[in-house]
User: What shape does this take?
Amino acid sequence: MRQELLSLPKTLAEDVAKNLVMVARLIDEEPERAYAYSRIALRLASRVAAVREAAGFAAYANQKYSEALAEFRAARRMTGTVELWPVMADCERGLGRPEKALDMAGAPEVHKLDKAGQVEMRLVAAGARRDMGQLEAAIVTLQSPELASSSVQPWTARLRYAYADALLAVERRGEAREWFAKAVEADRDGSTDASDRLAELDGVEFVDALDDDESESHEESRDRAESDVDADVDADVDDEDDDDDDSDIDVSDDLGDDDQDDEPLDDTADDLSEDEDDDEADGKAHDEVDAKAVDKD
Assistant: This one.
């Protein structure tokens, strides 16, 4: 790449280099930004193979497979190398053409690849088999001297992981667990989630501390809500007590009013007293009549 950039004017070469550096820096964590930088570099120097290759990988990271394939083909025409053959085949998979990917896996170009490229091509071919529903064939495709080797190479973890995942797809859980464990041993930079898959097979559940904090927050909110409800109930009880006190006052007032209303009862009592006086008078009159009758006799 350095020689290609040296053929450009200095200022232009510096601008292109800066954008390519940003693509390499962002492509894993922020692929969309990496893609934007690749487009800038592509506008500045579309005739530079390294730029076309970087643009291809940026598009590939954003699942723009048609665009990526076009850039990879352009880079391959410029350089004449076959290094991009496996990723080009994977673009065919991404475009829904697994048969084309398998054709590329059997092409003469594969024999020109280095060991890492051949392993990568094997991974792509196994993926194409799975895309076509040929699960057992995918397992066979991954069985190779590289898989059986005890030495750890840059591709070892990914190869073992793919093999374990293929075994799990056909419900060979025991073997899948064994190979996920081997993938964990080889995965020194955490390029796969083999440890999570292994834990899942073992029935291990991880609890997120953030979830615990959220649960505690929910519990605190619930307690506060219950406290508010209790406070409202107490307030209602106090209001009822106040109402009861008011009722007592009203009753007393009513009783006072009733005492005032009882005044006509005094008239009745007077009437009763007058009637008793009349009865006494009548009684005396009868006694006098009876006494006179006795005297006559």
DSSP finds 15 helices and no strands in the chain.
